[in-house]
Amino acid sequence: MKRFEPLLYGAVMAVLLVALIAEGRRSAALDGKLALNAKELYGLLSNPQVKLQLVDLRAYDDDNYLDAHVPGSVPMPDCSIENAPPAARDRIYPYVQTVLIAGDGQEAAVERCRGQFMNARVLAGGMTAWSDALLPEDVGDYSPPKNSAGGGCL
Amino acid sequence: MKLQVRLFFLALIVALLAAVVGLRVRNDAREAQVSQPTGTPLAGGTP
Predict the structure, then answer these.
(1) CB atoms < 10 A from the CB of A65, how many?
(2) How far is it, in rounded angstroms, from Cα A76 to Cα B4?
(3) How many CB atoms lie within 10 A of CB A22?
(4) Is the ipTM of this structure higher than 0.95?
(5) Mind listing the pLDDT tens digit for each residue in A63-100?
(6) By the CB < 8 Å criterion, does A47 face chain B?
(7) Measured between alpha carbons, how far is A62 from A94 in angstroms, rounded to an integer?
């Protein structure tokens, strides 16, 4: 019996490790499905350890992006790179952890965008929820972050 | 096998088991959240 004891411990640990890896994968898959609320997003943006790309799918006009947007968000109207302003086109990265910000009736664009980004979550309630939570907003044209400023979102 | 080694492995197994169970409970709760949305639309508007 004593001879097999190390083997038994090893086998139990191997089974538990496999289960842990499976649950970790499931957790990562669920991350993409769950929408973030505005306060959660603000918390993530306030954490310098978290690297996030914010993509705003609303129209780039006076009633939408130019009126108010989440600081640091990159405009990409209707999830089409052709609709993005020239300064933003080379600032959209498909392999970066991304949060999509949409407007009314843009569910189709959100679904399309989920396929374009490797790891995309959605801001629940879109820009309306962000404004309702009285969180900081920027107005006006998109301007790429300066390298000397560290390129942060907030 | 020495008692200390045995205790070390047992503690390791208990810690792994706790991590697996904790993660599973958390994932189950989140899965229920995904399948029963709170009514908040993805893109603004009235819930």
Answers:
(1) 28
(2) 60
(3) 14
(4) no
(5) 889 999 999 899 999 888 888 888 888 888 989 889 99
(6) no
(7) 27
* pLDDT value of position B33: 78
Look at residues A98, A101, A111 and name the one whose alpha carbon lies nearest to residue A60: A101
Please check whether residue B45 touches A, CB under 8 A. yes
pLDDT tens digit sequence for A14-46: 999 999 999 999 988 887 778 888 999 999 999
CB A71, CB A137: distance < 8 Å: yes
Residue A73 DSSP SS3 = coil
CB-CB neighbors (< 8 A) of B1 in chain A: 2, 5-6
CA–CA separation, A145 and A64 (whole Å): 21
What does DSSP assign to residue A82? G
- On the question of pLDDT at A147 being above 70, the answer is no
**Residue ranges of domains in chain B:** 1-32
The phi, psi pair for A3, rounded to 5°, reads -65, -35
Measured in angstroms, the CA of B20 and the nearest CA of chain A are apart by 5
